[in-house]
Amino acid sequence: MVSAQRPGAHRSIAEALSQAGEGALVSVEAGRYEERILLTGAVTLAAQDGPGSVEIHASTGSALVVDSEEVRLSGLVLSGADEQYPVVDLRRGQAAFDGCSISGRAWTALLARDQGTLVARDCTVDNPRGAGIVVTSPGANTVENCQVAEAGSSAVVVAAQGRLTLRGGTLTGSGGNAVCVNGRGHATVEDTTVADSRKPGLVVEEEGSAELRRVVVTGSTGPDAYLTSSAPVTLTDCTFSGAEGESVHIAAGSAPLLRGCTITGAGRCGVRITGAAKPRLEACEIRDTPLGLVVDSNSAPTASHLAVHDAHQVGVLVTEGSAAEFGGLTVVGGTGGVRVLGGARLQLRGGEIELAHGDAIEVGEGGTGRFGEVTVRTARGAGLKATGAADVVAESSQLHGGGVVVDTDAAVRLDDTVIAASDTDGVRVLNGGSLVAERCRVHGARGHGVRLDATGRGDLRSCTVEGNEGEGIRSDSVEPVRVHDCEVRDNGGPRPAPTRGGRPDPANRAGAPPEERDGPGRPDHGTRPEPSGQAGNGPLAELEALVGLESVKQEVTGLINLNRMTQRREEMGLPMPPMSRHLVFAGPPGTGKTTVARLYGAVLAELGILGEGHLVEVSRADLVAQIIGGTAIKTTEVCTRALGGVLFIDEAYTLTNQGKGSGPDFGQEAVETLMKLMEDHRDELVVIVAGYSEQMEQFLSSNPGMASRFSRTVEFPNYSPVELVTITRNMCGRHYYELDDSAHEALVRYFEQIPKGATFGNGRVARSVFESMVSNQASRLAMVPGTGDAELSRLTAADVPELPGGDDTDPRTPGPDGARGRGSARLSALVGLAEVRQALAARLSGLGQLRAGQQPVALTANLVFEGRPGGGRRSVARLYARALAEQGVLAAGVLHRVPLSVFPARWHGQAETFTSDAFDEAAGGVLLLEADRPFADRPDEERSAVLDAVQRAAQAGSEVAVVLSGEAPQLAEVLRESPNLAGCFAEYLRFALYGPEELAELVLRRLARHGRAVDDGLRQALGVHFADTAHPEGAYGAHRFADRLAAAAPTRTIRVADLPDGAGAAAAGPAVASTAARA
Length: 1079
Prior knowledge:
Blueprint: H1 13-19, E1 24-28, E2 31-34, E3 37-39, E4 43-47, E5 54-58, E6 64-74, E7 76-80, E8 88-98, E9 101-103, E10 108-121, E11 124-126, E12 131-135, E13 141-144, E14 147-149, E15 156-158, E16 163-167, E17 170-172, E18 179-181, E19 186-190, E20 193-195, E21 202-204, E22 209-213, E23 216-218, E24 225-227, E25 233-236, E26 239-241, E27 246-250, E28 257-259, E29 262-264, E30 269-273, E31 280-282, E32 285-287, E33 291-295, E34 302-304, E35 307-309, E36 314-318, E37 323-332, E38 338-340, E39 345-355, E40 361-363, E41 368-378, E42 384-386, E43 391-395, E44 398-400, E45 404-406, E46 411-415, E47 418-420, E48 427-429, E49 434-438, E50 441-443, E51 450-452, E52 457-461, E53 464-466, E54 473-475, E55 481-484, E56 487-489, E57 499-500, E58 503-504, H2 538-545, H3 550-571, E59 583-586, H4 593-606, E60 615-618, H5 620-623, H6 630-642, E61 646-649, H7 666-680, E62 686-691, H8 693-700, H9 706-709, E63 712-715, H10 721-734, E64 738-739, H11 741-753, H12 763-782, H13 789-793, E65 794-795, H14 822-828, H15 834-852, ...
C-alpha cells in the first residue's frame, strides 16, 4: 500500500516496490507522486480509487522504465516534463496498461524497444512535442481501444524490426502521420478511426509491411494513405474521405493490395499510382473527386470491379508509359471517362462508362488501348476518341450516344461492336487516321454513319450501317478505303459506290454518289492537297514545333520539298534523276529520331508518295532469329507490316557488329534480306536506320550496296542546355507544374555542367531530371506543414537534383581543376569504405590502361556491391559512373537505378523487352540493378526470366557498365540461381559498416553542406554518441541525424549542448522519430 498519510503505508511507490515480492500487487492511494519508477520484477501497480486518481510525474528522465518479465498497470496517470526522454520506456518484458493516461513532452511519449512488449487497453496518450507511441521491438505489441490526440508529430510509429497490432481507438489531430510504418516494421491496424492528420494519415514506406482492415481516415492535409514500401501491404474495407489533395498515393515500385476500399471527396485525386508501382485494386470505389484514378511514371496496376463515380475531370487517367490491366471497370458521372496518354497502355475487359457529357474513352499521345465487352453511354461527346499516334482495339463493345473519332496518326480497330444514336457521325476518321471495322453495326447517328476525311483510311468488312440521318458511308478521302461485304441501308444520304473484291472502284471515292466522281484514272493533280503543315497544323507544323533540331528540320524539310518537286516534274512529263528516300538518322539517344521519322512518313503519306505513312519501329531482336532461315522470315514479316509506311530500325549497327565468333552471322542475313526487299518495294517502303554516328558509318561500310541505298545521312546533335531546359519546362507544363526563376537558373547550370558524350541521353535525361524534381519537391513539401496550393505546383532550385557524383565527400576539400579526375578524387575522399575505395582505384586504373591501349573493356567494368542499407553503395555507384566517363570507358557517366523487382515477367518476352529498354536508357552510363527483397519473393519462373534477360543484355551491352547491388542474402540467391549472370561481373566488393568515428564524420560533412559551423568538441561528442547508440541505417541515418540537428540548432554554430543525450532512449529518439512524418 502506498499513501502519503495513511499510517503504516509506504510513502513512495519506489519504497513499496523495493519491498514487494514477485507477483505482488501495489495499491496506490489517490495523489500526485513525483518520482521515477524502475520496474525490475513482476508486479502490478493499481490506482486504489480508480482511473485518473493517481499521477506519477517525472521532471527529468522517464517516469516509468520497465526492465522486468511482466508488469501490469491499472488506472494510472503517467506524465513527464523531460524533452529528451519518453514518459514510458519499455526495455524488457511485457507491460500491460489498462485504463491509463500517458502525457509527455519528448520525441515520444511511450517507447517499446529492444525486448520490451507493450499491451495497452482503454488508454489515452498525448504529446504536443513529439510522437505518441513508438514501437521498435519485435514482440507481440498490442494497443486496443486507445486514443492518441494532438500528437506533435506522428501518433503511432512502427520502425526498425517493430511489430504492432492496433485495434479500435482513435488517432486525431496528429502533427505528422497518424500511423507510420518504416524500416522493417509490421503493423496490423483494425477498426481504427484517423482524423485531421496534418501530414499523410497512413504511411507505409521503406521495407515496412502492414495489414489495414476497416480503418476510417478523414480530413487529412496530405494523402490519407502514402504507400511506398517494397514489402507486402494490404488495405481491406478501409474508408478515406476529405483529403485536401490525393487520397491514396502509391509509389516507388510498391505493390499493395486494396480490397473493398472507398475513397470520397479528395481535393485533387482519389488514387494516384506513380513511380513504377504495381498495386492491385479489388472492388474499390472512388467518389466525388476531380481525378478518380491516375496512373503515371511507368506504373503497372491491375484492378477488378473498380467503380469511379462523379469524377469532375477524368475518371481514370493512364499516362507516362504505364501499363494498366482492368476488369469490370465502372465510371459514372463527371465529364471525362477513361484517358490513355503519353505512350501508356490500358487493357480493359468488361466495364461500363456513363457520362452526361464529355468523351467517354480517349487514347492519345502514342497510347495503346485494348477494350473488350465495354458499354459506353454519353450524351455529348465521343464514345471513343483516338488521337496522336494512338493504337486502339475495341471488341464486343457497345457505344450509345457518342460515336468513334479517329484523329491524325491514330489507328482504331473495331470488332463486333455497336455504335448507336451518336449525336454526330457514328464513326469519323479525320485526316491521317486509320479505321478497320469488322462485323460492326452503326445505326441511329444524327450525322453520317461512317465518315472519312481527305486523307483518312478505312477498311470495313461485314459491317451493317443503317438508319443514320446522313449518308451511310461518306468518304472524301484520296486514300485507300475498302468496303467489303457490308450492308448499308435506310440512311439519309446516297448509297456508297459498288465495290469489286473489297476495293473501291478506282474511278470513285468510296461512298461518294456517282455525280461526284472524278472520272477514270487518277484524281486531278491540280487539286492534290498540300501537307497540312502549310496551314499551321499537321505533321509539318508538328516538326517545326519540336524543340531545337534546327539543322534536322532544315534537312527533313528539304527532303520533303525535293519529293514534292519530283512529283510535280513527273506530272509535267519532265525527267528526274533516280532518288532514294531511305535515310540514316545518326546521333545520340533522346534527340527525337523516332518522332522525326514518324512525321516524315506522315508527310510522305499526305503527298501520296506512301499509301499510309505509318511507322513500324524495330530493333535487331525483331529482325534476327537464332536458326538458319528464320531471319529472312522475320525480316520479311516486318517489312510487309511496314509496306505503305516507314520502317524505322533503331541501333541498326547491331545487325553487322555482333558476329564475333565462327558461327553464322544472322544479322548479315537480315541486312541482305532487307536490301532485296527495299529494291522489290522501292515505291511502297521507306527505310530509316538509326544509331550513333560512328557506328552508323561502320554500318554503311559493312555492305557494298548499303551506301547506295542510304545516300543521305541526317545528323541529330545533342540538345543545347537552353533547349534541354525548354524540354524540361514543357514537361512541367504538361503535368501542371511551373518553374520559378531560381529553378530555371539551376537547370541551366545543371545542363551546362553535366557530361555530354556520344551517348548522352538528351531528352531522356531531361525527363529523368523532371521526375527527380517532382520527387524532391514532394519530399521537401512533406516536411513543411500547411503547404499552400500554389507551392504544390511550383518547382524551385532546391528541387533540381545534384549532378551525377553527389556524395559524402568533403565539401570543404576542393577537387582538381577541370572535370577530369573529379569523380575519382571524390571516390578517394569518401568516408570509410577503405577496401572498396582501394579496389575501385585499382580497377579504374586498369580500365584506363585498357582504354588507352584500345583494348576491349567489355564486362571488366561490371561489379557486385554487397552491403547493408545506408552503407553507401548508391553514392559509390554514382561516383564510379562518373569516374568511368572520365577514363573514357563510358560516354556520359550517368547512373540509372532499377530494382530487379520492377522487371515484369508475366508473359514470354516481357522481361527481354523491359531489360532492353533499361539498357537503352542507361547507354553510356552505369546501370545499377538492385537485388531487393520483393524480387526474392516472386515466383521461380519470373525470377529466372528476369535474370536470363539481364544476363544476355549484360553480355551484349558494350556501352553500359552494370553494378549489381544488394544485401548478402539476396545477392547470394541471385548469383546462385544464375551462374551465367555471375560470370558477367569482374569483382565482388563488400561494403563494411560505418564505425562511430566515420558516422561522426558523415554528420560533420552533412552539416558543412548545410552551411553550419561546429565547435571543437563536437566531433568527439558525436563519436561517443554513435559508439553508445545503435545506428543500423548507416549513412542514411547519420544524414537524417545531421538534418534534424541543423534544423533544431538555434545558431549557425552547432555546439555540444545542441546534441541530444547520447544514452538510453534519448539517443535512440532522433534516429527513429525523424522518420515518423517523412512522407
